[in-house]
Amino acid sequence: MNNITFDHNLFLWLNFDGGEFMDKLMTAISGATMWIPLYLFILWLVWRTKGWRGTVAFVICVALAMGLADMLCGIFKHSGLLKHAWESFPVRHRPMFDSAVRDMAHVVSYRHGAFGTVSAHAATTCALATISSLVIRKGWYTGMIFCVVVLISYSRIYLACHFPLDIALGLTVGAVTGSAMWLLWRKLTEILRKYGKSAA
After folding, report:
1. Which of 157, 178, 192 is nearest to 29 (CA)?
2. Radius of gyration (Cα) for the chain, nearest Å?
């Protein structure tokens, strides 16, 4: 996939040297630690609206959605549990390692794997956003969580970890796995509710 160049100009437009503060900010946004309060808030929202049974089912389904999204992305990067699933798939280097743009890109750190398609960050965050927005079903929450997805996705471009196409494919994977696990959440919630009634 290294012969794909149509998104190079867009990448170079979005990727720039914002200085030390911007580098640290985007690195933090791309990480997991700063989002822990948001994850706890999501669990609280689900518990408040769906009760403990709905929350237990939600945790299970979110883990499955994000795990599946990550594994699917690994197929195309030849990494993770399914790295041998499609060995003939042509890999695409991250911008920081792509000879066509690496000398023009602003790179914060080279401590990443060589290949970037498909973006697991975009996939896993979109999976979480999709299933949680379908479960919580509040307009303000949906808007907020998808703004988070956009922010995290952009941080990956800023850090020269992904091209825009990598992000778009990751978002697609996340939307699919998140939607599928939402359907499973509905079934699990129904099963837990029936079990609770029969036990009573």
Report:
1. 157
2. 19
Q: Is the pLDDT at 122 greater than 50, yes or no?
A: yes
What is the per-residue DSSP string for the chain? -TT--TTHHHHHHH----HHHHHHHHHHHHSSGGGHHHHHHHHHHHHHHHHHHHHHHHHHHHHHHHHHHHHHHHHHHT-STTTTTTTTSPP-B-GGG-TTTTTTS--S---S-SB-SS-HHHHHHHHHHHHHHHHH--HHHHHHHHHHHHHHHHHHHHTTS--HHHHHHHHHHHHHHHHHHHHHHHHHHHHHHHHHHHH-
If you search the block for the tokens 């390692």, which residue do you land on? 97
The pTM of the full predicted model, rounded to 2 decimals, is 0.94
Residue of higher predicted confidence among 199 and 130 = 130
Q: What would the pLDDT profile of 39-62 be if each residue is shown by its tens digit?
A: 999 999 999 999 999 999 999 999
